[in-house]
Design brief:
Two copies of one chain form a homodimer. Chain A is of the alpha+beta class. Chain A is 36% helix and 27% strand. The first copy, chain A, has helices at 2-7, 17-27, 44-63, 77-80, 84-90, 116-126, 171-191, 238-243, 267-276, 305-318, 332-341, 352-356, 378-402, 411-419, 432-442, and strands at residues 31-33, 40-42, 67-68, 74-76, 95-100, 103-111, 135-144, 158-168, 197-201, 213-220, 226-236, 246-248, 254-256, 258-265, 293-297, 323-325, 346-350, 359-364, 370-374, 405-408, 423-428, 445-449, 467-472. In chain A, strands 3-7-8-14-11-10-9 form a seven-stranded mixed beta sheet, with helices on both faces. A five-stranded mixed beta sheet of chain A has the order 16-15-17-18-19, with helices on both faces. In chain A, strands 20-21-23-22 form a four-stranded mixed beta sheet, covered by helices on one side. The longest helix of chain A is centred in the last third of the chain and has 25 residues, at 378-402. The interface between A and B is large, with 56 and 56 residues. Strand 5 (95-100) of chain A pairs antiparallel with strand 5 of chain B.
Amino acid sequence: MGKENFVEQIADIEKDFPQWYTDVVIKTKLVDYGPVKGTMVIRPYGYAVWENIQSELNARFKECGYENAYFPLLIPMSFFTKEAEHVEGFAPEVAVVTHAGGEELSEPLAIRPTSETIIGNMYSKWLQSYRELPIKINQWANVMRWEKTTRPFLRTSEFLWHEGHSAFATAEEAEAETMKMLDVYKEFAENVLAIPVICGRKTEKEKFAGAVATYGMEAMMKDGKSLQSGTTHFLGQNFAKAFDIKFLDKDGAQKYAHTMSFGVSTRLIGALIMAHGDGRGLVLPPPVAPVQAVIIPIAAKKGGVVEACKAVKEKLEKAGVRVKFDDTDSSPGWKFNEWEMKGVPLRIELGPRDIEEGKALICRRDTLEKTAYPLDGLDKTVKQLLEVVRKDMLETARKRRDGRIVYAEDLDGILNGVESGNFVKAGWCGCRACEDEVKAKTAATARVFAEGETSKKCAVCGKKAEHTVIFARAY
Amino acid sequence: MGKENFVEQIADIEKDFPQWYTDVVIKTKLVDYGPVKGTMVIRPYGYAVWENIQSELNARFKECGYENAYFPLLIPMSFFTKEAEHVEGFAPEVAVVTHAGGEELSEPLAIRPTSETIIGNMYSKWLQSYRELPIKINQWANVMRWEKTTRPFLRTSEFLWHEGHSAFATAEEAEAETMKMLDVYKEFAENVLAIPVICGRKTEKEKFAGAVATYGMEAMMKDGKSLQSGTTHFLGQNFAKAFDIKFLDKDGAQKYAHTMSFGVSTRLIGALIMAHGDGRGLVLPPPVAPVQAVIIPIAAKKGGVVEACKAVKEKLEKAGVRVKFDDTDSSPGWKFNEWEMKGVPLRIELGPRDIEEGKALICRRDTLEKTAYPLDGLDKTVKQLLEVVRKDMLETARKRRDGRIVYAEDLDGILNGVESGNFVKAGWCGCRACEDEVKAKTAATARVFAEGETSKKCAVCGKKAEHTVIFARAY
């Protein structure tokens, strides 16, 4: 009955998705609430997922020529006022340090909500000649945005993220980089997180405060809502002018640089949970799972079982699999549920009869299929299976997502679409009033432009459509 | 004349050590000053050193059973007052957030100067049974201590560090862990940073605010001053009682846990610079050098030179060496100086004649020795040389340090000793007045107890000595 014990601890995913989410993140010990409202403690199991995400992204950024660095947490408040849109967007959610070292500060300091300003200030100091361009720097850091309603990973006052910042001689290069890094995100989301994403440009309303254009990648969660999972921003010369990022060009003229930035955060862990999780808990894609395979002994007290488990563990470790041998006292059934809840991609069961027959039972977390494989060559089998699971998880999520994209001709259509848990494609005239109207009537927002699609008329006002937009309710 | 151009940019290490330090950290682009007084920007070259330090320490911590996690930046001010000594020690240097999200907070929040309080609060929530002990968690994070006088890496208002925090059922285990992690630090300092360290217990005056006992590792810089490079703290039940970290023991009784903590920071980069640097700039130990070998073409325009350099680069990369091929337009002389200043352990010179003769010249940064080696098997040669450099750097630093430890019988002796750039061993009666007197008269402080040595009388008051103390001027 161990199974029921566990499952009943998690709210029913079909009946109460938000409570299911909260139960899963807390009970699998991914995260806990910090003592200050809106903050989270990322526990070892959650942080290990983050470290795997970091290592995958770091490799990709390095490939694109980025170097890591670290800029200060505290930014003079005056920096924010230098870029008009930026201050408007971020000032309301900034946390402010007014006292330090027992004294009141002469100027209040903001805890970074994002670092375009302070990095712009440094680039201005460093950059002299076109020869030093492009500058490509990435930072892994904590940032803070004071939010009224918070949920672990999805929206917390402090979160961890990376932010890439680059500067170029021309607008074309900066724009190309904005699109390139969006592609890098997409490839990462699909191949590493097994999450299919829709990428595209954001509306003026939804863009980053201070950007010329923002591009986002949107992922569909199991409840049909969208989670913005990463954004890239073409900043034009907005920050270059505000922070005096200039260089001496080949032609002897002083010119402003063109900059862009991009970031993803610990939100991605929320995306993983809600894109793949099921009634039993987490389902983690192999590339970021802290434990990729767990070995569970059956009738562990029988001679040879523990030894056989240890031998399999050693073999898998040598093959580079993140493996755990659960040799605790709990019953196999209890362990099955525990590790299913924790989303471990493969469970390897080994009992006396299996050993006798020279095989092991492997249960896939994503499909719950159980198959016997020969112990001989089990390391290769496991590695192949992990790869199959990764691909299948992506395809399963893609099919689910593709089946939940609908078209609408009017506001009612958008409302019906999102209420049934869909992404809705609809025409939009391009005006803010119509965009606001959609939100007011349907609680859906414009996620991204559906690239390459052309609607004839705006679903709100009926005028000529300028864009096809993907509307969805969003986290 | 490129050489002179460079060398003259750095102050003379013999004449003005502090200016030499500042010149080196800024001109090698390890670091820059942030816009807020006392903050630093860790530039890519410096951050790469930090990443290498992290990866070496992470492997060691994992070996000791630690898992990484992340706790919130902001700590309620009330947490600090729960441990009387702790608040006294840290409150004066705390940065305080009073406003966030456009409103004044009901309780001011401290930016963590260290995380014993908030981690204690969480451990209290998590810990229930003796079965869950020990808890061993490590965090990589930024912390903030508002300092009046700051210097890059050595003392900055914000710095990066790791902090390990563990909880045990018994005092003996917590004390043993405190000593074990000190040993881990020592092994790391010597084998990775090539810095010989002296480890020992700190006096009551110098201990961590709230600890029962603090142990430190002290490293001698080239000016004879000491740099505290890492500390481990046995916290007894001080924080367990303040934060209610309790567990149900085997015997059915509720008991307070015994905790310990330990940390090293970006200060270590300062230690590296001042323990090994010379008149030409940095000398980086191979395990943490961002570039371990730089290839410089001689007469690069002659046929085959660039190709030969590229082939060597590829071979070294395959062997796991962090290698750079400097194919810029600058002259070889200019490059020599640039990479010497940046402290790259090995320089590989390749010209047409070398290639003809099937060899390459390798110049060691630590000794400046230049030797020709066959191109055949150069990957193995380079790997062996990096290991030789690492060992020799440690031995060189150890010999220098050992030659600068003297004994003193009285205050004059301590003063003479430290003024000549030595560590001074002297007897101490154990009273605070005498410790203060040493500082007042000599500007030296008690670094650590010299374990195993027994002085007869206190160098200040002449009474019976309780300890032999290592006194030094310190960063």
